[in-house]
Specification:
Largest sheet: 6 strands, antiparallel
Shape: globular
Strand order of the largest sheet: 1-2-3-8-5-6
Structural class: alpha+beta
Helix content: 10-25%
Strand content: 25-35%
Distance between the termini: 51 Å
Number of strands: 13
């Protein structure tokens, strides 16, 4: 027994326990996207967590932003102060589906801990949450956020060895092309 035992979610009350459970499932569901972005970090030296000044070096609005960052190519995370400076384009609230653009005073939805926005014109590959990554076979879910042409290349490997360093892995290209009021999706 240590002092850290009191930091477990089930000792913090029902609200924080439920919030922790929700975010654990969210992280599990985002695993295909996060794993692909981690592989991209390995191959392209672009970190998984990206400060806004790194992503938008020519936009001085982002020089001092400390309450938000990009999570991979398509996700924008806001924490602490909910006055958000959004990058160019439109952004969809992952929790509510509401669309935002520009300078936003974000209201955190009930039972959430901050902002999670998806760039319009993005393809995300997610999966059903699992207790551990090999609990069952992955059933991927392709989520599309129309608004521009988009492409996502899902990366998969065996998850155990260092064979990815030898280029042994699989990629699946998913492309969304805007077509009038709809879109075509090619896998």
């Amino acid at each position: 027994f240590t002092w850290a035992n009191w930091e477990y979610p089930w000792f913090m009350g029902a609200e924080l326990e439920n919030l922790t459970r929700y975010y654990s499932k969210l992280r599990s569901s985002l695993f295909p996207y996060l794993y692909t972005m981690a592989y991209k970090a390995h191959t392209e030296a672009m970190p998984l967590l990206r400060p806004l000044p790194l992503m938008y070096p020519d936009d001085v609005r982002f020089d001092d932003v400390q309450n938000a960052y990009m999570l991979g190519d398509s996700l924008y995370v806001g924490a602490f102060d909910m006055h958000l400076l959004l990058p160019p384009g439109e952004w969809v609230d992952y929790f509510t589906g509401k669309t935002y653009a520009g300078d936003v005073d974000y209201s955190i939805p009930e039972g959430r801990g901050g902002a999670l926005l998806v760039r319009k014109g993005s393809v995300l590959v997610t999966m059903q949450p699992q207790k551990y990554i090999l609990e069952k076979q992955h059933d991927y879910i392709v989520q599309v956020f129309p608004g521009a042409d988009a492409e996502f290349t899902l990366y998969e490997d065996d998850g155990f060895t260092f064979d990815y360093e030898k280029g042994i892995g699989a990629t699946t290209r998913i492309a969304m092309k805007q077509d009038g009021n709809g879109f075509d999706l090619t896998i």
